[in-house]
Amino acid sequence: MNDDHATDPRHPTDHHATDPTHPTDHHATAPARPTDPATEAFVAHRNLLFTVAYEMLGSAADAEDVLQETWLRWVEVDLGQVLDQRAYLVRITTRQSLNRLRALTRRKEAYVGPWLPEPVLTAPDVAEDVELAESLSMALMLVLETLSPTERAVFVLREVFDVGYDEIAAAVDKNPAAVRQIAHRARRHVDARRPRTTVSASQTRAALDSFRRALETGDLQGLLDVLAPDVVLVSDGGGVKQAARRPIIGADKVARFIIGGSGRATGTVTNDPTLVNGNPALVLRLDGEMDGVLALRVENARITGLYYVRNPEKLTRVESETSLTLR
Fold first, then answer.
1. Residue 48 needs a FRET pair 20 to 30 A away by CA distance; which of 24, 59, 287, 319 works?
2. According to CATH, what is the number of the domain 201-326?
3. What confidence tens digit (pLDDT) does each residue in 33-78 have?
4. Does domain 3-110+147-191 sit in CATH 1.25.40?
5. Whole-prediction pTM
6. What are phi and psi of 292, to 5 degrees?
7. For the chain, what are the domain ranges?
8. Contact partners, residue 157, CB within 8 Å, separation at least 6
């Protein structure tokens, strides 16, 4: 990739859109003000590195840890021997992400109930980039969970960030021919399971608005009108908060589950629209305290997927950033 891609929001020269969260506090991984070539290079590519790690891991907290590990290794490198700093940093980040992904796989096997990615707040320009928004969506992130660690790394680097096969091969310790085969296999696997149609941000917002009105008024028919017949609701409480142990399938079951849950609430439930993982979503609060983040997937103007993250460990980042926004 070269400077011709400087306007591509996935490219590291675009400071904001490469990191979907537009983080402003990076003190854990590098000084805020570059003072030497190593720091300058790391800061210049940090957003790209965060997004690579996040899309591989589905966890912003683990992605930040990977960046810490990448930084510690990067400062030990002799920059005079590095021909392409971006490629070298991506290589370190990918290898650290692969190590962590294998450990996460073991943790997920013992996870209580369905597992969902940690939601991250995203900026409006990310939502307007349809391809980037899809790559960050809960729906596609769940599809990526079905890939092997190496397949996921190759898919993310090739399909999301358009990294060359030679560069990917160096990052995953494979030869370019093997990487091409892995990329083809991963692409075929994802295409068979990813959402069937690409929907604009405005269409998704319209469906979310209809859903929100029905939720606020307890309108069962209103929910049924906006839910697709085969809609799936997945809720993640992590064994800490109450959540359905299995996905709920079908408009009638999902609508009644939502209305029933709202009716059992022992306080005032409010919802605030936001952008999560590149797509419109809701932050739900009970008596002002964050209860969860609800993301959705829309196809043909109907909601086909609802993803409700209630696990408090996955809400810390969103809670702190929304609190700052409200001040």
1. 319
2. 3.10.450.50
3. 557 899 999 999 999 999 999 999 999 999 999 999 999 999 999 9
4. no
5. 0.83
6. 175, 175
7. 3-110+147-191, 201-326
8. 52, 90, 94, 163, 167, 168, 171
